[in-house]
Every structure is written in C-alpha cells, then in structure tokens.
Amino acid sequence: MRGAAKRGGYLLLGVLVLLAAVAASLTIGSRPIPLGEALDALLHPSAGEAALIVRELRVPRTLVGLEVGAALAVAGVLMQALTRNPLAEARVLGISAGAATGVVAAIAFFGVASLAGWIWFGLAGAALAGALVFLVAARTRDGSGPVSLALSGAAIDAGLGAVIYGILSIDAATFEQYRFWVVGSIAGRTPAMAGQMAPFLAIGLVLAVVTARGLDALALGDDAARGLGHRIQRVRLLAAVAAIVLTGAAVALAGPIAFVGLAVPHAARALVGAAHRWVLPLSALLGAALLLLADVLGRVISPPGEVAAGVVTALVGAPVLLWLVRRARTVTA
Amino acid sequence: MRLEGRDLVAGYEERTVLDGLSVAVPPGRFTVIIGPNACGKSTLLRTLGRLLKPRGGSVLLDGAVLHDLPPREVAQRLGVLPQAPLVPEGVTVADLVARGRQPHQRWWQQWSPGDQAAVAAALADADIAELAARPVEELSGGQRQRVWIAMALAQQTEALLLDEPTTYLDLAHQVEVLRLLERLRDGGRTVVAVLHELNQAARHADHVIAMKDGRVVATGAPHEVVTEQLMTDVFGLACAVVTCPLTGAPLVIPRP
Ligand SMILES: Nc1ncnc2c1ncn2[C@@H]1O[C@H](COP(=O)(O)OP(=O)(O)OP(=O)(O)O)[C@@H](O)[C@H]1O
Ligand SMILES: [Mg+2]
User: Fold this and answer.
1) What is the tally of structural domains in chain B?
2) What are the DSSP calls for A110-125, one per residue?
3) How far is the CA of A145 from the centre of ligand 1 (A)?
4) Cα A116 off chain centre by
5) Fewest Cβ atoms closer than 10 Å to its Cβ: which of A96, B37, B54, B56?
6) Residue B239 pairs with which residues in a beta bridge?
C-alpha cells in the first residue's frame, strides 16, 4: 500500500518544485535579476529599475500563473472524474468555447478593447456554456452521468466553435484583438486581475475538496456510490460547478491554455494513486509549477521575443506525459 | 433491524418490474432471494437498499420510510453490494476496501484507528489480506468479487444486502463466503443475498424468498420453499427434490 508518508512526500516535493518555479518566474527574463535582489525588491520597496520590474511585472505575472495553473489542473481532475474520461479537459464540457465566445462577443459587439474587460465576458460565457451543458445532461436518462455530460459538452463546443469562426471570418478587426487572447498567455496581467480571479479560485478549490470523497465513490459506479451514502446528483452538481468556475476564471484570464488540465492530473495519479484527497492538492501544486515553468521557458526561448505560455505548455507537457506513460501504467480517474 | 417493502412499484423508465410487491426481511436471519434471470431480484435488492427509488409503496427500515432518511445515516446501517460495480484503475485493494468506511467519515475527518481496524478485519474475513497492496484491476474475477465483499464488510452495517456475492468464485471460496455470511448472521446481523445456486440457498439460508416475473411466489424456511412443485414452477424446469444425506437440507436435481 502506498502509505500516507510516501504520498505526503510527493506533496512536499510538489511544494518544492512550485517554490523553484516561483523563484525562476521572479528572476528569469529578458532582464535577469538575481534571487537575492528580487526578494529584496519584494521586502523593501524601492524605486530601482530591478525592483520595479519585479513588483510591477513579474509578481502579477507569477500570481496569475499560480492561479491559472492550479485552477486548470484541479478542474481537469474534476472533469476527468465526472466524465470517467481520462482525456477530459476544459474543452470537453464546452467551457473553453464558452469563454472564447464571451471574449469574441465583447470585442465584436460591445467594443471592449482591453483584457480587463474581456475577463468578465469570458467568465460569463464560460459559466453560461458550462451551465447549459450540465442542465442538458441532467435531463437525460443517466442524469448528468459521464456519457451525457461528454456528449452535450462536445455539442456545445462544436456549436460555439462555429459561431466564433463565423464572426471572426467576417470581422478581421475583431480577429486582430482576439488573437492576443486566444494564444494563451499570462504576460501583461495586472495585480488587480490576479485579485479578481482569487475568489473564484477559492470557491472552486473548496468545492473540489468537499466533493473529493464523493468522486472516489462515484468511480465505483452510481450504485456503489449511493450505497456508500452519497447523493450522487449533488456530488456531480458541486463538482461541475467547481470545474466551471475554475476553468472559466482561468481561461478568461489567460486564454485557452492547453495540456495543463489534461497532463497534470495523470502525472499526479501516477505518483499518489487515484484517491482524490491526494490527487487534488498535488495537481494544484504541479499545475501551478508547470504553467510557471512554461512561462519562464517562453521568456528565454527566443530572445528578445517571448513565446506565449500556452504554446510552451503543450511543448513541455507532451514529452513529460509520454515519459510518464512509458514509466508507469497511466492511472485514470 | 427490521427491513420490509410494502406494495412496492419499481422499475426503469417505461418498464415496471415490481408491481405491488410486499416482502419482509426477518431481522437477524440469513435470507436468500432466488428466481430466474430478469425476474426482478436485483431490482428488489436495489429498492430495499435505497439504490432505486420506488414509484409506489415504501421501504420501511425499523418503521421509518427508508427513502426519507438521510442517505449517509442509511449507509451506516445498511450495506449494499451491487451486482456489477465498476473497477477503478490505479486503486489498490486496501484503498478500495477503505472506501467502505466513507459513511462513517466526514470530508474533514482524518482516518481513524477504528477505520484501520475495520478495514483489516474486512480484508481478513474476505481472505484477501495478502492482496492488500495489489491494484484491483489486476486481480482475477473471483479475487475482485472478494474485494467488493470486503468493502461491504468494512462498512460494518447491521444489515447487509448482497447481489450474487458468489459469482466468479470457485466452489471452496463460494462455501467460504456463505460461511462468512452465516457467521455475520450469528453475530446478530441481518443478511440478504441473491443466489443462483439453489442447493446452497437451501443449505445456508434461514429464510428463502422465491421470485418470478416481478412477484414473490413463496417465502419461508428452505424446506417449505424449495419443493419439487415450486422449483418446477418458478424455473420452468422439471426437477426432483431429495434430502441431502449430510445436512438434511433439500437438494434440487434437474430431471434427466
Ligand atoms: N438499468 C435498467 N434499465 C432498464 N431496464 C432494466 C435495468 N436493469 C434491469 N432492467 C430490466 O428489469 C428486469 C429485471 O431485472 P433485474 O436486474 O432485477 O433481474 P434479476 O432477477 O436480478 O436478473 P439476473 O438473475 O439476471 O441478475 C429485466 O427485464 C431487465 O431487463
Ligand atoms: Mg440480478
């Protein structure tokens, strides 16, 4: 039996990796700043150039990276459990497409030209799409079970995708702005944006923790979960709300970032097994670390330009996942 | 613990399986439900175990309407082994059996020594202690079946409802599980099992419920229910019933 001590060890490792990623994110960039100087800038605000870069650019960027990475990974765990589908991530429940539709509508119909405004449209779009998917699925025979969730999610995703491409193909000006969002990046985000995201992250994480045991039971089938005393419709509803809130906020803030929600839960399960009380916290740690490291890599890969974190996550994530697949059996939800 | 169904109407979508069925489970006894495939045994067991909500009538647990009680409270008193649970990947036997403790825990509650003891006892009773560290998906069908039984045992409920607990098991393990259920009964628990092996039902049960086409056709002690007339009737197969020379229980033999 994988003991609690061993699993606790992996959690500690996750914390250390995340700390290293945070340090890298604060120090590495087109203007390298030694760690001591960066910490000094945090503790003793001064007007020096390095201090300004750390406080105004790197700290908000790092905070947003932490939030988005953790949110996407935890949401991935939830969606994989809800759909009993190891490939589930933000796209599967139509949430990404909802956020994208919100952003496109903001640009094309409401003339919103700043990221700060897009965030709210993206969040609203994600919430509407996610709620629609869940409500449609809840009215089917298997009552928001895995198959109906995945199917209605795929339908909404395809439908909204068509709407987005329809608008973009006749409206070049909208596309000019939209492409900055859709590439998936955590650069240029402000501390205010990080703050706006925090309550959603908190709600989502609390709901995820509350449903962890219910999801463990649901993995044994609906009857077994009922037999263990769970109200399975309520477990599914809470987990879906958590997934929608987390994904919606993350995607609205950073654009659709691939792979974190897919790969991190698999990595976490390969390390600590399938019990959600271990998988959820480890995924949050590793998701945040992966996104930060991808962002750092994007800063140094082709100076003086930057590659968006969304592009790098896929580049970094793919080999990591392949390595894990080779090393151990993949462990699905 | 008294468990009974009154005028139960239950089924799936447009199909009504049980239509006005009443049944009482004798407390502290070992009850076996028999009947041909698709006659509604699992449907009855799921309704009695709160897995399926009846459309009409009610299940009473010590006089209280079962489906109005909080599910967690029910799960502390009534354990159910479904006919076909899903095998999750990457879960060890010990972890899976530990999930049987869920009704006794809260999400903020730590794993307690009591939980540990219950899981260890369940693993030993189901004869799978040596499998504890193995992933469930790598076990044989019979080993898995014993893991599910262990999970139900770990729940430590006054009553236990098991749907075909002996499927996939070899003869020795079948007998072992039946003896385990008898020991639980001797310890004061109420045990209900769906079994297909009539001779095992007749030998081990205190009380037999025979079903056909969603109805209860006979209930009573094995020698009252397992008769030539009734078995021929229920299963549509001509058979003889003789007395077992070892135990005195009725023994069903299909006629050549
Ligand atoms: N989930 C379901 N949806 C629709 N119909 C079902 C479902 N489960 C069972 N049925 C139907 O209900 C009837 C009774 O099934 P049930 O599972 O109760 O039979 P059973 O006596 O347990 O049979 P077996 O010995 O084969 O396990 C059957 O006609 C079956 O086809
Ligand atoms: Mg059955």
Assistant:
1) 1
2) H---SHHHHHHHHHHH
3) 20
4) 19
5) B37
6) B254
Q: Of all atoms in ligand 1, which is nearest to the CA of residue B11?
A: 12
Find out if CATH 3.65.10.10 is the number for domain A69-279.
no
**Any chain B CB within 8 A of the CB of A223?**
yes
Across the interface, do A219 and B132 touch by the CB < 8 Å criterion? no
Q: Locate B203 and state its tokens.
A: 């030998």
Segment holding B163, helix H or strand E: strand B159-163
pLDDT at A177: 85
- Which ligand 1 atom is the nearest neighbour of the CA of B39? 21
**Which ligand places an atom closest to the C-alpha of B17?**
1
Q: Where are the domains of chain A?
A: 69-279
**Both structure tokens of A315:** 């580049």
Q: For residue B80, what are the domain limits?
A: 3-254
What ipTM score was computed for the predicted complex, to two decimals? 0.91
Question: In chain B, which residues have their Cβ closer than 8 Å to the Cβ of A274?
Answer: 88-91, 95
* DSSP per-residue letters across A259-300: SHHHHHHHHHHHHH-S-HHHHHHHHHHHHHHHHHHHHHHHHH
Q: Give me the residues of chain B with pLDDT under 70, please.
A: none
Give residue-wise pLDDT tens across range A292-304.
999 999 998 887 7
Nearest CA to ligand 1 atom 27: B37
CATH number at residue B71: 3.40.50.300
